[in-house]
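Q: Could you fold this chain for me?
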Amino acid sequence: MNKSGAIVIIEDDVDDQDIFKEAFRQLNYKNEIIFFNDGQEALRYLTESVREPFIVFSDINMPKLDGKELRAQIHENESIRIKTIPYLFFTTSVAQEDVIDAYSKSIQGFFVKPSSFDDLKSLLRKIVEYWQECVSPNYVK
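A: Sure. Below is the predicted structure, expressed as structure tokens.
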């Protein structure tokens, strides 16, 4: 995983995008933050971009290509899968079948969006710091 790569956020709700922007601004990470409004845009980026992102935060319920369908396509795409990009669901509600389905497709985390800004910022900090410490096959030093 490319720890200096972009943090990709796939989120169709503009208000949630603004909250993520502010949280990451306050956390002051050096990674570029890239937003996609739907799974199709994100899949195109992950497939065609030569820049390897650091981590992907994905909503589940989105137009065109939802988060579960996007994850399934990524999981089946060898050229994306070998990049070992952490892929996390970040959603407002949770159903047991969504969690089971997500982990069956090798999701690396499933999180419910906290209701307070401070809790969101704290959770994002924990997630990013965890993945900054983690080693992956392509980036062992």
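A (continued): The radius of gyration is 14 Å.
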